[in-house]
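Project standup — Tuesday

K.O.: blocked on the structure for the chain from last sprint. Re-posting the sequence here as requested.
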Amino acid sequence: MTLSQLVLRVIAIVWIDLTLAGDNALVIAMAMRSLPPRQRRLGSALGAAGAVLLRIGLTFIAVELLNIEYVKLIGGLFVLWIAFKVILDASEPAEAEPKARQLLQAVWYVVVADLTMSTDNVLAVAGASGGSMELIIFGLVLSIPFVVFSANLLAEMMNRYPITIYIGAAILGRVAGEMMMEDRFTERMLHPTDTMRYLVEGALIVLVTGGGALLCRRRKCA
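H.V.: unblocked you, prediction finished:
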């Protein structure tokens, strides 16, 4: 590999990390929102680092992993659950001191959700690396600061502007619908068309925001 090819590949990997960090950062922000700033930063870093380490280990079996039925279906349901949980957690003060268990639980949420959502990132980085394991690791590790910075910024916005919690939940509802409709089991059983995909995504957006708001009102969320 020549120097010019290496530079072009590095630029491509950086660009991929920047463009694909959004959904992952949103998941982290939603999971970490209720933690105080110091633990939020720690949890974001631990969650992102744990997810990236798993991504590195799964890079070469990412395609095979996607071929396993129920993987994206279960991942989509998990992302949907996170969206509901964050809306319900809106009733709790963001500054409340959490127990250690809550921090570890949030990190676990991030690792599992990020892992099921990150196949596009893994495959894109693997493709841009030209098969170089060093560049693959570089790209995946580089994604940590991008995702952590974006996640903390989003979490701070959610605490200042509660409406962004519902916007984030709506986006996760769409992501969850997209994941579930792309699962091999769903495709084999339903053969979904583009229209069906859009309808499912739209229905989950309404379910998450509307249902979450209703449950939150019953719990007298702030």
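K.O.: great, moving the ticket to review. The radius of gyration is 18 Å. Confidence is low (pLDDT under 50) at residues 94-100.
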